[in-house]
Write a structure and sequence with these properties.
heterodimer, A: alpha/beta, Rossmann fold, six-stranded mixed β-sheet, five-stranded antiparallel β-sheet, globular, B: MetI-like fold, 80% helix
């Protein structure tokens, strides 16, 4: 068992309600847990169980309801009682977010998309001039090398396959001083071979650089292969929190409505 | 294998046809449209038969335009170039202002208290025709091409800001969110997330407005704002219809050339 050093993420009573045309839908209800530095956590649950909302809340893209407790990342407040921290940009500096739809700028080339990861260190004039130093460009190329895409650094991002785009997104997350990787269904729109490549790259780099990973997943087999710990949500509530290996058939059946053989491959 | 149509599907199709029958509001809408057209016909004194009755005068008038008189062609061409220069600077200044205003008028970039008043200001700039602006600027800066530049600049700023903001509102928000998640300044979201997405459309709109401004620049000249419009106004007022025809031919040729070039460029950009 790995000995973890510090608490990297701490969530206390996270509650989120979406309101649409008068109707309200509870996406998260009193979710609390802590993740230690270097842990790799799979976030499981059926569609609409609150996984994406939770990941977006951790990086401050979703603001929780008033009454929710503190959400801390690397001992810094992301949000508290429904208010986003004033230093959210500084907090986000330590997070690399990987989205299901990659969220790259398709019109820009691959290296520019990776260089976007270094934008937090730029002033307004440098951003307007799109000015990056040679060292920064070399750093971006190094990040692309780590995900095996250095040869297509100057290709337009929209021309890449889904798996390649996701690896560019990983390079963008790694190019700076990232401590936590939040991956929102990173392989949901990829074929099995691309999924394997993306997860191997992602987890390999997390191990190498001692990064904390929270990845929301649908494939239980991937969770079992890559993550020691699983947090499962059911209708916005914390349903399971423990070692992935201890997730039994009954729990899975309750989570997804049927036993998913995918776990027992 | 014969594919049998089920009675349930047939019943559904029939029910849908009944649902889709034109309601009373459909006929009321047509009646309202006809009433408006009749009302406008009276006010506008539309008398199409007069065209037929006065056709003799029109033929006589048209004959005086031919053959065109190109004796002063050097003057016409040099004034046409001035017209182009008015359009170039009017459009360029408008683009410079429309870029920030287009972003500030977009509901997905700024708060309503910013974009709502700015949009109303842009509406006002568009509502006033270039000709009216030209007359106002002639008072401010005197007769000549600069008044034309200002008239086109101000009116086009209103138009381009609206078009640019509409383009910004249709972008894919995911890349912008991806940049926001890095903890970057909002300026990075604009420079790396919004601008690359809207640039082809913005260039296309700017080129289209340039085409349109070449036409407008020749009209604003008629109130004294310089260019080919001044010559056109003078020859028509002096009953020199053969010269007027020569000016119009140069104008049409230039505008067609600009249209073709701009259309080619827009296709290339988009």
């Amino acid at each position: 068992m790995t000995a973890y050093k510090t608490t990297m993420i701490k969530i206390d009573s996270a509650t989120k309600t979406f309101r649409n045309n008068g109707a309200s839908q509870l996406a998260l209800s009193g979710v609390s847990f802590a993740v230690q530095a270097g842990e790799r956590v799979a976030l499981l649950g059926s569609s609409g169980s609150g996984k994406s909302t939770l990941i977006r809340a951790i990086c401050g893209l979703e603001i929780l309801d008033a009454g929710s407790g503190e959400l801390l990342l690397n001992q810094k407040v992301v949000q508290s009682n429904g208010n986003l921290s004033k230093n959210i940009r500084q907090v986000r500096n330590h997070i690399g977010v990987i989205f299901q739809q990659f969220n790259l700028v398709g019109q820009l080339d691959v290296i520019s998309n990776v260089l976007i990861g270094l934008c937090p260190h730029k002033n307004i004039l440098q951003l307007l001039m799109r000015k990056f130093s040679d060292e920064e460009k070399a750093k971006a190329l190094d990040a692309l090398d780590k995900v095996g895409l250095i040869d297509i650094a100057y290709q337009r991002a929209s021309t890449l396959s889904g798996g390649q785009q996701q690896r560019v997104a990983i390079a963008r997350a790694l190019v700076r001083d990232t401590k936590v990787i939040l991956a929102d269904e990173p392989v949901a729109s990829l074929d099995p071979e691309s999924s394997r490549k993306v997860m191997d790259t992602l987890v390999g780099l997390c191990e190498k650089f001692d990064l904390t990973l929270i990845a929301s997943l649908h494939q239980l087999s991937i969770a079992k292969k890559y993550c020691q710990r699983t947090i499962a949500l059911n209708a916005g509530k914390l349903y399971f929190d423990g070692a992935t290996a201890s997730l039994d058939a009954a729990s899975i059946a309750c989570l997804y409505g049927s036993v998913n053989n995918d776990l027992h491959d | 294998m014969k594919f049998e149509v089920s009675s349930e599907s047939l019943a559904r199709v029939k029910n849908k046809s009944i649902e889709d029958r034109r309601s009373l509001s459909y006929y009321v809408a047509w009646a309202v449209a006809i009433v408006i057209l009749s009302w406008a016909w009276r006010g506008a004194e539309v008398r199409p038969l007069d065209l037929w009755a006065d056709s003799g005068n029109m033929v006589k008038y048209a004959r005086e335009f031919f053959p065109p008189n190109f004796k002063e062609w050097k003057l016409y061409v040099s004034e046409m170039i001035v017209t182009l220069q008015i359009a170039i600077w009017g459009t360029f200044l408008a683009i410079l202002c429309a870029v920030p205003l287009g972003l500030l008028c977009a509901s997905n970039v700024v708060k309503p208290w910013v974009y709502q008043p700015l949009r109303r200001c842009m509406d006002a700039l568009r509502a006033i025709n270039e000709m009216v602006f030209a007359m106002l600027f002639i008072v401010a800066v005197g007769l000549g091409p600069f008044a034309g530049v200002m008239a086109i600049f101000v009116h086009t700023t209103g138009t381009l800001a609206k078009l640019f903001s509409e383009a910004v509102e249709t972008i894919d928000p995911k890349p912008v969110e991806g940049i926001r998640a890095t903890g970057s300044h909002s300026m990075a979201e604009i420079v790396f997330g919004i601008l690359p997405q809207v640039m082809p459309l913005w260039i296309s709109y700017a080129l289209y407005r340039f085409e349109s401004n070449v036409r407008s620049a020749s009209v604003v000249g008629m109130v004294g704002a310089g260019g080919i419009g001044v010559i056109l106004y003078e020859v028509i007022r002096g009953f020199q219809y053969a010269q007027a025809c020569a000016v119009l031919i140069i104008l049409v040729f230039t505008v067609t050339l600009i249209d073709i070039t701009s259309s080619y460029l827009r296709k290339w950009v988009v």
